[in-house]
Design brief:
The chain has 21 helices and no strands. It has helices at 2-11, 13-26, 31-47, 56-66, 72-80, 86-98, 103-127, 131-144, 147-152, 154-171, 178-185, 194-207, 211-230, 241-257, 262-269, 271-294, 301-316, 324-334, 337-340, 349-377, 380-388. Helix 7 runs parallel beside helix 10.
């Protein structure tokens, strides 16, 4: 099956998806290969996304294009030097030098989905999950994660995927090395909201056996936040760290209190945006409550605690007008396999059936809302035609 998957992938990525899905079900020892191939298919789809109008991706395309003819010296001195998000700019610059801005979403989607697929399949082997459960977890990911939004929000999804992978390596695989540390550090210089997930990792790391320290973390965080917000010039006295904190505070101010900007007004008046927020918050609440119910004593308590904290953050962000909830919802959905692989712990057959119906309902709702959103932002038919009529060798030739 693996050989057939690779051969058909070279001929046409879309065709190979059939063999890859069968491989996920039948060939557990080669999960990494199938994760690589399926992430490559999704990256190819991302490459052929053609925006219908203005979206985040079009802005990133403009930035990447502006770097095409820019010298390294000029880029380093006038763009990179002194910018806190320097890793983000380095990625944009490298892609810009290729002269093909569509490689940006392709690269980010490949990295992000490979991480997500790898975590699901590796955890499935760790828990000795049934193949049907693996398939459900994979389909849940594809249905609930809004593909076009991930393609558009390349910085956020890349940063959050790397952090989530770091959490997985540390708490589940027990790999506490320099690579895991980099998975925590690098995202902080890709998207500034990454800092919030790092703080949750610090809290969840102590929550399981140091409850008093956990409370101290929360109190200290609240006090520091209130102090810095009331003294916005305080951070400027601290070199680099102060600049970073100042940027975090400024961005947080925008997200928490912006209600009059053009974008905020659109969100308040758009029915689909309201339904979308309600859907993701309810889906998160369902997963959170379900995990709380079915969780038993486990040596992965810190991993589950992290999931619960991120889920609470999603629910707490519901009153905020801007799409703060969306960022953290994506982190929750990346870890939804924690719940799916534990449903079998529900002994009562009828309750277990109702739980699966709930998961399938979330999947159906996610698929419908993502297709509607996709169609409003990009040309789906053109993307599929471009994918379906090319081999991997001429896939990236426009």
């Amino acid at each position: 099956m693996l050989i057939a998957s690779y051969i058909t992938f070279l001929i046409n990525p879309l065709i190979s998806s059939i063999f890859i899905i069968v491989g996920f079900i039948k060939d557990r020892k080669n999960y990494v290969h199938y994760s690589f191939l399926f992430a490559s298919i999704l990256a190819s789809l991302a490459y052929w996304v053609i925006p219908k109008g203005e979206m985040d991706l079009t802005r990133y395309f403009d930035i990447v294009t502006s770097y095409e003819n820019m010298s390294w010296d000029f880029f380093f001195n006038h763009v990179l030097f002194g910018d806190l998000m320097f890793i983000q700019h380095l990625l944009f610059y490298v892609v810009g030098k290729t002269g093909n801005p569509h490689l940006l979403p392709a690269i980010v989607i490949f990295i992000s989905y490979f991480i997500m697929l790898y975590m699901i399949t590796d955890y499935a082997n760790y828990k000795k999950a049934k193949s049907s459960e693996v398939l459900l977890a994979l389909l849940f990911l594809l249905c609930v994660m809004p593909f076009i939004s991930l393609v558009s929000n390349v910085r956020n999804i890349l940063a959050f995927s790397l952090i989530t992978f770091g959490i997985y390596r540390e708490f589940v695989q027990g790999k506490k090395n320099i690579f895991t540390l980099l998975l925590y550090v690098v995202p902080c210089f890709i998207h500034i909201s990454s800092l919030s997930l790092i703080l949750l990792r610090l809290i969840s790391g102590s929550a399981s056996n140091r409850k008093s320290l956990n409370v101290a973390f929360l109190i200290l965080g609240i006090v520091m936040t209130l102090f810095l917000f009331s003294n916005p010039t305080m951070s400027s006295s601290l070199p680099f760290i102060g600049d970073y904190l100042g940027a975090v505070i400024s961005k947080t101010n925008v997200y928490l209190f912006d209600s009059s900007s053009y974008y905020a007004q659109i969100l308040q008046n758009d029915i689909f945006s309201k339904v979308n927020k309600m859907y993701f918050v309810l889906a998160t609440l369902y997963l959170l409550v379900l995990l709380l119910i079915i969780s038993s004593k486990s040596n992965n308590l810190k991993f589950e605690t992290y999931f619960k904290y991120v889920g609470i953050l999603v629910i707490a962000s519901y009153p905020i007008i801007l799409t703060v909830y969306f960022r953290y919802t994506m982190a929750v959905m990346m870890l939804a396999f924690l719940v799916i692989f534990r449903v079998q712990l529900i002994k009562h057959k009828d309750w277990r059936l109702l739980t699966y119906i709930g998961l399938l309902s979330i999947m159906f709702g996610g698929l419908v809302q993502q297709l509607i959103f996709f169609n409003s932002l990009a040309y789906i038919n053109q993307m599929i035609v471009n994918m379906g009529t090319r081999t991997i060798f001429n896939m990236f030739v426009q």
